[in-house]
Records
---
Amino acid sequence: MKIRTHTLLLITPIFLLLGVAISIMVYMTERRELLWGLQEESKALAISIAEFLDGDQLDSELQAGVEALTQFERVEAVLQHGQLKYARLLISDDSEVGIRLVRESGDEQFDPAGIPKRADLDLARWGGFAVSPVQEQTEDMSLIKALTPIHAKSGKTVAFLEVVTDATDLKTHSQTTQIRCLKLTGGLVLAGIVISISLSGFLVARLRELGDAARVVASGDYDHEIESHSIREINDLGSTFNTMRSILKDVLTKAKKELVEVEEFRRPEDLAVVCRNLTQQRQQLELGPECEILLGVTGKVPTGNFAGFIRTEEKGHRFFLGKIRESDSLEATVRASAAAFLLKKLLAVDTVPEALRKAGHLFRFEVCLVMESNQNENSILRCHQVPGEVPDDGNEIPFGPQDPVVVTTAGMKITGRLARFMDSVGRVEEAELDFLLDELPATAYLIVQEKGADS
């Protein structure tokens, strides 16, 4: 639903109800005032005519007979001037009805609809007059009756004078008032529609301005601001938008600056360092405190080394340490992490030679050292050859049954042998691994030949 339709549905009924309420009040007030005026006019006319009638003479004429009435001729004279429409002379008797019509005269089209009741006569006798409500005669005619007593000088109530006046003006005026009230209601409804359209247009313009500003900011112009407004709420909305735009500008500026720095200064070597650090952190969480020695060694060797540690119920503890033969540091780091993950899974289910054989088909190991620590008292260091080419630089020692392990470093031969280290150390406990591994230079690569089971 659009805001204009919503505003129309919200404001227009209010003005409609207001117009109806005002129209009802105006109509009722004017009708009441007009009715009161007609009743007062009829009452005043009846009382004034009764004052001009001689009560004593009327009493004597009534006693002489109805034909001798001369006082009623004055009433008929008033009827001729058009002030009255109808008049009747009534007296009170002892009959069951209590009222007797003596004389009546006036416009024939008026029908007073029966003589008054005794209660009306009693009201007129004690109150001086009685006025009836408006009575509808025909569709186009209404009348009002006024009843007042005629007194003799002695205070005796001789008769009652009932006059009937035309009240058609009340209906005519009521119809005119109804039309005026309808016009008033229609005018208020029209004013409500105009106000709602104007208000919705104003709000739509402010919202459109905010939407245009948002599109400008979305296009990349973060310097566009919404101007302040005299209306506080709209001004607060604009200030909030300007604050959001400023914050967004600062955030994007900072992000662009960081992106430029990353694009400019992030090199493959840096990415390799980050990848290696993450790998070492993951390995440290997986290995636990038992393998801090291996992590210490991998921190000293070049990029591409990997290490791992697993526990098995049947085979005890297995440590492995190796290096990937790759020239690119970033690729070596990624492949080393993948090799460590795969080798860890294989060592959990296969023998050491089988695990190294499977992993060797996928990764180019320069060297891999595996150590098994059984659950008995003796720890056995088992070295297995990894498939791959061995560089022929003249600094290696040929394989032999007596020298199963050859260690070289930077073109210099190492006189010592891993077997001698094992003989000197004897049993290799986990706590003594740091001594054994510290004897291996950080830049060394191991060429390993598989040994017998008794090694």
Note: Confidence is low (pLDDT under 50) at residues 287-302, 377-455.
---
Amino acid sequence: MAIADQSILDHLEPIAKLSAGRKKELAALCFTEKVNKDIDPTRMNVAKAAQALYLLKGDLSLHYYDDKKVTIHGGTEAAQYPVNADQKVAKTVALTEIEILRIDMDLLDIMMTWDQLSSAGKPPKEQPKAIKFAQNAQPTVAEAHPRSTDEWLNDTEVFSAFNLQSGVFSRLPAANIEAMFKRMTTVKVAAGQVVIQQGGQGDYYYLIQNGIALVSR
């Protein structure tokens, strides 16, 4: 297996609709596999998890429950879509040695949901260089340019795939995500100021936009 090249994802649907940041992150989580002739790649799902399977190279035969057979060739328009998307497909058979790509459906669904919320996957608008410099030099100046909902949603470091699947945001209904971000505000914090006190009342959720925080117990 080899880590997937991001350029591959640009030609697969619906992955091609993801933002550049999400595609870069997804590429690092995907692997391409080579499958020998006469093998059914859909039966090689060891994890038994819902997966989208794409044919990248070679010829693959789709066998339907009504005995119909269709051959898909890697690199064609038909191969841009998951070969196992149609529930009427009973099995698949590699007619040649093939190369495939598997993607966890839950992971893809989460990424698509967040990108759709952030202006249909459009990247955030470029900030003026002067503001960027000010943020790096003096974090509190960032208050002059509070992050928009789109900028937060497109932050693949704070909201990485791992955090979205297992963190606190994994329990948040998709319908409430955008509403939550619209209610977020930028708060100026001075050096040395205590933001959260252990044992205190926890009525807010904090994200570090700029600067460094020390956590102690």
Note: Residues 120-144 have pLDDT under 50 and may be disordered.
---
Amino acid sequence: MLARTLAALLGGYLFASAGAVLASVMFVDRDGLPSDALLGGALWGLVLYALAIIWAFGVRSPAKAWGSLLGATAVLGASAALLVLAQRGAA
């Protein structure tokens, strides 16, 4: 139970943070204010955090919870980094 709780709290936090960064970077490219992008990213991060907590307690094993959350975090983080590099290269 401790491993699932830690996966939900820590893994979920990392997953939500990476998702919030990706959403913020995606929203900045639009014609809005940067503060709107940050707010949109933060709200999206809250949704992802709730989903990560549900996921951590819904899978069969804590190892699968950790693996899937960390894998998804890596994908979201890499996507955000590539998008930032692409935006800087286009500017």
Note: The radius of gyration is 15 Å.
---
Amino acid sequence: MAMKTFYVVQGFTAGPRGRLSPVPAIEVPSAEAALRRAEKIASINGGAIAFSRAGDPGTDDFDDPVVLARFGQVPEEVG
């Protein structure tokens, strides 16, 4: 299978003690869609990151993720 770029949005929500927890990640069709969705999710949940990752799902060979944007509160170790 050929290389493909995946665009993903990962949201985060703050728990009662302020600890950030991930919400389910969402795959979107483009970088622009990832940016729009991440901004919206951050306005609802408190934080989100949009990133892309290129690779070959058939061989499970992927490049490192590329951060497109961070919105709101995102854990420091992410991106």
Note: The two ends are 27 Å apart (CA to CA).
